[in-house]
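The instructor's notes for this session suggest beginning with a concrete chain rather than abstract definitions. Hand out the sequence below and ask the class to guess, before any prediction is shown, which regions might be ordered.
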Amino acid sequence: MILVVVAAAAAGVAVLVLNRKKAVPTDTQKASRTTEQAGKEVEQIVKETEQEQTVGISCTCGMVNPATVKFCPGCGKPVAVPGRCPSCGHQNDPAARFCQGCGKSLDGSR
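After discussion, reveal the predicted structure:
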């Protein structure tokens, strides 16, 4: 009889310990999740940076410039980003005829 009670108590303790391990993550599990999250964030930043670098704007001199520059390093002319308003700098849809920021014409006409 005593053996049955001891065995039942041991089984109950084992169940509690196992449930607690599942419910409360260890420091290693927390660190691994944090590392995974950081890795995903870094991957996203790298993808965004690569996309920005691959977007090129052709200048009249033939040089392809990144979208972040204001002047062509080859000839010094201002780089005209499609959809960017030359007046206020607001980024509009490339097909837009008027700036959504200031209302000025984007095709050079009045």
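Then share the key points. Strands lie at 56-58, 64-66. Helices lie at 2-23, 27-54.
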